Amino acid sequence: xxxxxxxxxxxxxxxxxxxxxxxxxxREQGEGQARGLRPPxxxxxxxxxxxxxxxxxxxxxxxxxLSPGAGRSAGRKWRRAGGRAAAxxxxxxxxxxxxxxxxxxxAPPARTAxxxxxxxxxxxxxxxxxxxxxxxxxLPGSTMRTSVDSARNLQLVRSRLLKGTSLQSTILGVIxxxxxxxxxxxxxxxxHRIGTAALAVQVVGSNxxxxxxxxxxxxLCRFQIxxxxxxxxxxxxxxxxxxxxxxxxxxxxxxxxxxxxSEQFYKYAVQLVEMLDMSVPAVAKLRRLLDSLPRExxxxxxxxxxxxxxxxxxxxxxAVSLEERFKMTIxxxxxxxxxxxxxxxxxxxxxxDDKRVIAIRxxxxxxxxxxxxxxxxxxxxNDDIVMLERKIRTSSMPEQAHKVCVKEIKRLxxxxxxxxxxxxxxxxxxxxxxxxxxxxxxxxxxIRAARILLDNDHYAMEKLKKRVLEYLAVRQLKNNLxxxxxxxxxxxxxxxxxxxxxxxxxxxxxxxxxxxxxxxxQSDIRGHRRTYVGSMPGRIINGLKxxxxxxxxxxxxxxxxxxxxxxxDPAAALLEVLDPEQNHNFTDHxxxxxxxxxxxxxxxxxxxxxxxxxxxxxxxxxxxxxxxxQEEKIEIAHRHLIPKQLEQHGLTPQQIQIPQVTTLDIITRxxxxxxxxxxxxxxxxxxxxxxxxxxxxxxxxxxxxxxxVAEGEGGREHxxxxxxxxxxxxxxxxxxxxxxxxxxxxxxxxDILGPPMYEMEVSERLSQPGVAIGLAWTPLGGEIMFVxxxxxxxxxxxxxxGQLGDVMKESAHLAISWLRSNAKKYHLTNxxxxxxxxxxxxxxxxxxxxAVTKDGPSAGVTIVTCLASLFSGRLVRSDVAMTGEIxxxxxxxxxxxxxxxxxxxxxxxxxx
Length: 912
Ligand code: ADP
Fold this sequence. Notes:
Layout lengths: L5 H5 L1 H7 L7 H11 L13 E5 L6 E5 L6 H24 L13 H7 L11 E6 L10 E6 L2 H13 L7 E5 L18 E13 L5 E19 L5 E6 L9 H8 L1 H16 L5 H12 L5 H8 L4 H9 L3 H39 L19 H15 L4 H16 L5 H15 L12 H11 L4 H16 L7 E5 L6 H12 L3 E5 L7 H4 L12 H9 L5 E5 L12 H9 L7 E2 L6 E2 L5 E6 L7 H5 L1 E5 L5 H19 L7 E2 L2 H11 L6 H36 L3 H7 L1 H10 L8 E2 L2 H8 L8 H4 L5 E8 L2 E13 L4 E4 L4 H16 L1 H4 L14 E6 L13 H13 L12 E2 L5 E2 L6 H12 L1
Helix pairs in contact: 3-4, 8-9, 8-12, 10-12, 13-14, 13-15, 14-15, 16-17, 16-18, 23-24, 23-25, 25-26, 30-32
The chain binds adenosine-5'-diphosphate.
The site of adenosine-5'-diphosphate (ADP) has 18 residues, from helix 18, helix 23 and helix 25.
Subunit structure: Interacts with PEX5. Interacts with TYSND1. May interact with enzymes involved in beta-oxidation of fatty acids, including ACOX1/AOX.
Keywords: Acetylation, ATP-binding, Hydrolase, Nucleotide-binding, Peroxisome, Protease, Serine protease
EC number: 3.4.21.-
C-alpha cells in the first residue's frame, strides 16, 4: 500500500469517480477521503508547495498544503464536503452498488463508464469552470494563493465555491498567463491552451480596499481546452485531461522508458536538497518526499520550489510529454545548484577573510576554540557570543574567574535566546570581561609636586594636608603599603571631597566617589546574588567597572550616614572592603568570584564619628577637618571660589569686582556655616546677576555701534526717518552700559541676594542681665547659643525649657547649687535682697532653638554666668562666648574636643 499513487490518495474524487477501488476496500477508501479532505496545515512562506505522500497506514492519505494555514471556514467547508462524500459512500454500501455520479453529475456517462473500467483511470470533470490568472503559474502537485478580483473570477468563486457545496464544484481549471484577466471587457481574452485542474482548498474574502477573494488552490493535473462552452458569467470549457491521475501501475516500465533521464534528474534533485539547510523542517520533509513520491511528479514539484521565472514555469506546464518535462527541468536544477555553490563559496571567503583579520592582529592571538560558533552563521547575536568568548580568552582574569566564565559561556551557547537566563548570563559575562582584573595606572609619586598641588588647590587645612603628605610619602617609600584607611571628619563644605580628588590627582590615579548616605542594604555594597531578578553588582565592583583600572582612589562619602535595615547592615559589608588584610579577596555576591581590592586607595568622609559603627571606625584613621574662620573663608573665596565661579559664568575680573568687605558681608550676613559651600553658591548667584548685566551691556553697546556707524555715514536723518518708532523707544531705554568692572558693594549685594539673612544683634540681646552666650557643637559646625534666665516670685522652683537632655538639666542644678553656696561671696541676692537665692523665688532657664534637642555637660559654665548675671544685675560681656563643664566645687573643666579655631570663630562672630 505504500507504493500507492499519491494522486489517488490525494484526490478525493478518485474514489468517488471510480467507485470501488480494487486496491482498497470501501472502508479504507472512506478513511482516505476523509483525510484527503483536510485543509492544509503547515506553511511555507512562498506558499507554492503542496507535497503529498503515502500515509503511514495503507489506505490513509494526507494532503498537506505547506502554505500558511488554511482558514477555519474552509476547514468547516471541507468537513461538510467530506461528510457528504462519506454519506454518499455509506449509501453506496447500503445499496450494495456504486453510485459514482453523486458528485460528478457533469461527467458524461460514457466517460464514467470508462472510468469504471479495470484500468480505472482517474478523471477530472470534462467541463471545467475556468479561473483566469496572470500572477503565477500553478503546476500540478503545488499549492498557490491567488487573489481574485476580476468580475468573471468573482462570479466563479461566488457561484461555484461559496454557493455550491459539492466536491465537484471545488475543482477549477486554472488558466495562467491570461492578459489582463481583471478587464471587464465583454469578450473573453485569448486563453492559454494548457491549464492546471486545481482543487480550491480555501476561500478568504475581504472588502478592503475593494471586494476580493484570496483562493488557496492545489494543482492536480494538466488539461487542455477543447472548446469554450460559455463565456458568461464566467467561462466554462470542455477540457481534455493530459496527465494521468491514477496509480502508475507501470511505474517500473516508465522508469525504464525514461531510463537515464529520470535517474539523472533524481540525482540532481537529491544534490540540490542536500545543499540546503536540513535543519529547516520543510527541507527535511522534502528530502524524505523525494524518495516516497513517484518520479513522474518530481519535475512539477521541484520547478515550483526552486527559483524559476513564470516563463519557465509556463514552459514546464506546456511540456506535456514526461520526457520533455524532465529534459527541461534538469537545466533549471543545475542552475540552482551552481547558484548555491557560488553562494557557499563567497560565504566561505568572507569567513576566511574574517579569520585572517583576527590572525594578523598582534595582541589578540586567537586560537580556535572547539565548539565556537564560527560557522557561517551570520546571526548577530551569535557573533556577539563569539566575541565574548574571545574576550574571555584574551582577558587577564585570574584562573578561578576564568574557569567560571568558560563554564558560563558554555551554558550560554546551549541556551535559547528567549530564556530569561540568557540575558542574565550574558550581562554577567560582559561584566566579567570588562572588569579591570589586571589593569592599573602607574603611580606618580613625587612628594614635592604633591605638596604644591595640594597647596594650590586648598587654602589652610594644614593638619589635613600634612597627614595626607605623610601618607603619600610612606607610599612612595613602600609601594604596597597596607596602611590605614583615611577618614576625613568635618562639617559639610570644608573640602573633604575635594582633598580626596586632589590625592587622586597627585598620584595620577582615577577617582571615583561612592555616596553612601542613606544606603541601608548590604547588597548595595556587596551586590545581589544572581539568583535574584534584577540582580546587579555592588557599588564597589560597579565603580571598578566605571574607572576601568584596579587601583583608583575610591572616596566613600558620608560613611556616618549608612543606614541599617532588614536587608542587612551595609557597614558590616564595608568592613571587609576596608580591611587591608581581607580586601584582596573581596567577593561580590553578583560576581561570586574574588576580586583583589588591595590596590584601591580608600578614603572615607564623614560629618561626625558618633554615628560610625565602632568596628568600622576602628579600621580607619580619623583626620578632623575643622570649619574655617572668617579670615580663612575670605582667603578661600578670593583664591579659589571667586575665580572658579567667574570662569564657570564666562566672566573676567575686568567685568566684576568683589572686594573683601563684600565677601565678609556675605560670610557674616548671608551664610552661617563652617564650610564654604553656601558661600560658593552666593558667589554663583552674584555671577549670574552680573552676567545678565554684562550681556545686556554688550547688546546695547552693539546697538550703539550700529547707530554710530549709521551716523558716521551721514545717516542721522535716515535713522530718524526709517526707524523712528523703534529707535526712539530704544534710545530712550538705552542707559549707558554699566561701567566695567561692576563693583559688588553692599547695595549690590542687597539687590542681588535680598536683605541680609542673619543680623548680628548680639550686643542688643545682651542689653539686660540674665543672658549669656554659650558655644554649641553640631555636626554642621560650631554655633553660639543665647542662654536666658528670669526670676519671679515663687517657691524655689527651677524651670528648664528648650528640649534639654538629662546631663544638661543636671548641669543647671549644679550651677544653681554652686551659686547658692557662693552667693555671699559674690554678692548675689534675690529680688528681696536675700542671699538665699531661691527664697520665694522661681527661676526659669531657657535655651533657644527650642525645637532642637540639646545635651551635654559643657553648657555648665554658661548657665553659671547667666544666673550670676541675673542675681547680680550686671551684664555679661557681649564679646565672650563660653563652653565648659563645671564641678560642684566651681571648677571649669577644660574642653578638649572643641578646637580653638571654633571658639575663635564664635567669639569673633559674637564681637560683631
Ligand atoms: P565636603 O566634601 O567637605 O562637604 P567639598 O570638598 O565638596 O566639601 O567642598 C565644597 C567646595 O568648597 C569645593 O568647591 C571646594 O573646592 C571648596 N573648598 C573647600 N575647602 C577649600 C579650601 N580649603 N580651599 C579651596 N577650596 C575649598
